Amino acid sequence: MKVALAQISPRLGNLEKNFDLHLKYIEKAKKKNVDLLIFPELSLTGYTLKDLVEEVALSPDSNPIFDELKTASRDVSLVFGFVEEKERGLFYNSAAFLSEGKIVHIHRKVFLPTNGMFEEGKFFAQGKNFHTFSTPYGNAGMMICRDFLHYGACYLLFAGGSDIIIVISAAPGRGIQGKEAYETSRMWESMGGTISLFSSAFLIYCNRVGFEDGKHFAGGSFIYNP
């Protein structure tokens, strides 16, 4: 299996531009014979949405953007982040896994940080579950950013038989010292290696880059082979 990580910088609130950016990376991935292409958290919308949440929300079952991405997934399996609209005016910070022209799985972020610079709990509904699901490449599980900082969530996935754990993220960089990497980047990579080792699962982490609303997103994406 050949995996590629699209460590992009989405434009805040601009679905059209971000969708076009996804299509460009999908074309690049096809030319390189990539099997699975992974984008960061909220890759279709940008992160600091606040009252833009409702404007950029998508319904996976009836949306032209999803329809085109499903079609693209016949050539390259995809993971990407988006705002999911559900009944009763609920909006979720979600991740979709598309393959062979179908929606394989959607994960809704469970642990919504609402402290300091983070305000997710004010604008998003909370997901409830972590599931292992079948893919063409083995059993997989997905988490979104803060979900990964809860060991119990990781345990649920590898206890459920996940061979691949996919984490998509929009994690700002903090704790820089001189020319060294961000302390937060070191933390994510250290946790990734530890979880991969203990679970005997491949650990794939895709974080975004760029500046948005005063935050610098640190990148530092990686893949661990157990």
Automatic annotation (TrEMBL):
Residues annotated as domain CN hydrolase: 1-226
Keyword Magnesium annotated: no
GO molecular function: N-carbamoylputrescine amidase activity
SUPFAM superfamilies tied to this protein: Carbon-nitrogen hydrolase
Keyword Hydrolase: yes
PROSITE patterns documented for this protein: CN_HYDROLASE
GO BP: putrescine biosynthetic process from arginine
Keywords carried by this UniProt record: Hydrolase
InterPro entries with a match to the protein in the record: Aliph_Amidase/BUP (IPR050345), C-N_Hydrolase (IPR003010), C-N_Hydrolase_sf (IPR036526)
Protein's recorded name: CN hydrolase domain-containing protein
Organism for this UniProt entry: marine sediment metagenome
Lineage of the organism: unclassified sequences, metagenomes, ecological metagenomes
